[in-house]
Amino acid sequence: MSDPPLRGNRPKTPASPPVRRKALRQQAVAQGQYATRRARVWLAPGIGVKRWLTLFVVCTLVGAVGFLHFTWTGPLHFVATRWILYLNGLTLPGLIPLHITGMVVMSLALMGAFFSIAMLNRSMMRGIGTMPGAAVDLIRERRTLSRGLRIVALGGGTGLSNLLTGLRAHTGHTTAIVTVSDDGGSSGRLRESLDMIAPGDLTDCYAALSDSPVMARLLLHRFTRGDGIEGHTFGNLLLATLSEEGGGLTEAMQDIHDVLRIRGQVFPATTTPATLVAHLEDGGVIRGESQFAASVGHARIRQVSLDPPDLPTLPPVLDALRDADQIVLGPGSLFTSIIPALLVPDIAHAIRGSQAPLIYVASLMTEPGETDGMSLEDHVRAITRHLGRTPDCVLVNSAALPPDVLQRYTEAGAWLLNLQGASPDLIGCAVVLPLLQPGQARHDPVVLAHALLHLTPRRQG
Q1: Does the bond joining 18 to the residue before it have cis omega, within 30 degrees of 0?
Q2: Which residue spans traverse the membrane (predicted)?
Q3: pLDDT digits 0-9 by tens, 194-247
Q4: What is the domain range of residue 80?
Q5: Does residue 88 fall inside a structural domain?
Q6: Is the same domain home to 171 and 107?
Q7: Which of 30, 134, 185, 332 could form a disulfide with 155 if both were Cys (CB 3.0 to 4.6 A apart)?
Q8: CATH code, domain with 446
Q9: 414 domain-assigned
Q10: 50-66 confidence digits (pLDDT tens)
């Protein structure tokens, strides 16, 4: 007896006619539902399509009436007469009024016009490499983002990039002003060898706002081998390359935004390399951001400064602050991420003169070696002391950390920041909301973005 045929080699039995008809009906229903959904999206409020469709219909009808007037009163009168008599002959006498025939013909003509526009749109979208179904989504997204708030966020580290990840879905007018005083890791090595600003936090923010998922992933790739590039991220090397090729980041900034397809803007607080200096309460001094955490047990930080102090900033940074609907500080490390951006003189002056609300997103925990023993009110006072303006609102997390996460941070010397023991002034300007990612001691970017957007009215236009 021969072996049975392998399962993968069995001949396919054609489906029976009833089964095939059922499958075709289901496919037709699915296509009809898809077309209906697409039509609803095209007609959704806010994407600027309904007004032009209405204008198209009105102009078509007016044009039809004008053409009829021309043919009836002009040299083509005989053509119009023969056409009307022909349509009358097709109408069932006594059953269908003559004007109904005209309405049917007019409706068919409009349907044909809409169909031709749809086919023209499909051909154009395929010609430029865009799926026709994706065009309406892209239009709707861009229209929505164009009406979003003008938000300027200052800081650095994972806190700022997390915030940008949440904001990118709601507005296309986000501007990140990034602290660039880091002197450790990949950023420190590039800074020392190329005499450039630290690119690490810039890379994280570019990845968070990039419209290209592939580029966002590549920017954060860290090399684990290779002489000279081990430990560097691709994004840091890319920024270093563009800076060298363009004669500095100032000249390369527009190229960077174009290459990475940034939804918004990302700028360094200054384009001049600077060293972060901590002045301690006992008179001691710590130079270099990377040395702060390594000096656990030293006296508390009283003040920080940048060396050199008179640092320039880019004109687009000041333009963004002038036009801002909302200015956000953090989330991030107080003395190494947030305050260094405020030490650039022109930035501090622009924030003090801005009418936009200043919102401080409070850190979740203190940081060993940096904010040991500081309460939430101490954080706010430090910002006021360095900036010369007190935040109008402090956004505070109310969600409880998982016990194991809290224990791990406590063993490392970090403590929760909350409103316990706060003054009436701080309590009066605080907004307390659950802002945590589940199971982590990190702000949820989606929840945080929604919270910030609800603190400032939506911009019109």
Answers
A1: no
A2: 52-72, 92-120
A3: 888 888 899 999 999 998 888 889 999 999 888 888 889 998 898 888 877 766
A4: 39-144
A5: yes
A6: no
A7: 332
A8: 3.40.50.10680
A9: yes
A10: 777 788 778 887 887 77
Distance between start and end Cα atoms, the chain: 80
Number of residues that make up the chain:
461
Amino acid present at 187: S
Q: What is the pTM of this model?
A: 0.74
- The first and second tokens of residue 105, run together, are 């013909």
Question: 164 and 94, same structural domain?
Answer: no
d(CA 29, CA 174): 42
Verify that 159 and 85 share a domain, yes or no: no
Residue carrying the six token digits 């009105």: 58
**Phi, psi for residue 4 in degrees, rounded to 5:** -65, 150
Tokens (6 digits) for 124? 């154009």
Contact 435, 395 (CB under 8 A): yes
Phi-psi region of 89 (alpha: psi -120 to 50; beta: other; left: phi over 0): alpha
As a whole number of angstroms, the distance between CA 247 and CA 361 comes to 36
Nearest residue to 293 (alpha-carbon basis) of 414, 376, 415: 414
3-state SS, residue 220: coil
Same domain flag for 338 and 451? yes
**Domain's final residue, options 101, 119, 144:** 144
